[in-house]
Amino acid sequence: MADAVGITVEDVSFGYPGRPVLAGVDLRVEPGELTALVGLNGCGKSTLLRLVAGLLRPASGRVLLGEDDLARLTRRATARRVALLHQSAPAVPGLTVRQLVRQGRYAARGPLGMLRAGEDSTVARALADAGVTAWADRPVDALSGGERQRVRLAMALAQDTRVLLLDEPTTYLDLRHQLEVLQTVVRLREERGLTVLMVLHDLAHAARFAERIVALRGGVVVADGAPEEVVTPAFLAEVLDVVGRVGVDPEGGWPVCYPDHPAATSKR
Known about the structure:
Blueprint: E1 7-16, E2 19-29, E3 34-38, H1 45-52, E4 60-65, E5 68-69, H2 75-79, E6 82-85, H3 97-102, H4 106-115, H5 121-129, H6 145-157, E7 163-167, H7 175-192, E8 195-199, H8 203-209, E9 212-217, E10 220-225, H9 227-230, H10 233-240, E11 242-248, E12 255-262
Parallel strand pairs: 3-8, 3-9, 6-7, 7-8
Antiparallel strand pairs: 1-2, 1-4, 4-5, 9-10, 11-12
Helix pairs in contact: 5-6
């Protein structure tokens, strides 16, 4: 297995006409690290993820995967280096689980390779690693929301990259399936030596599952560190606009947040 690859974001700015989103963001995710991006809606989390995935180009600054500058890579070459699990995806009627997961091999096999019958060992491994082999011949649209999310994770794994990006992977899932997906990501990160950067809405999940939390506000990084270092009452107020308390889980040792009410004055 290839060595893990780090992510470097250097002084990146990005925006749309009349709406700046990111302003001079610097971020380094070490090889093999699991980092959570948190912040209010509209703070630039998903935009930053799409920049790291090569789906957007920065207005200034640069993004590197290892030593590779994404600005110098084609879209297909980037897809061989980084996989992105989107927050939501349109339904694909008529496809089985196996057929959908095989779509993750496009970057490696190309359009002609995708027409060949059968699957390679990478697809089989992705199905197994995400725990969906037993569903391989079932229609995707017959699965539950939690099952579909695991299938989409398998499709991302089928790209066989060293960097995995996840945009709110627990959205729309019940608590059990949220835990299943996050525990699967943690396990695969360890087994495959992945570098993982994921956007999470739930600060409790970020504090429990991530090694590091990076918070965005107003298009810049306003907090960065281990959960036990950065998650404080001041963090809740300054980053999330809520007044609350922070305790410690007696078994795991990670921070536990008790939000009480919205902050009286929003800084948005």
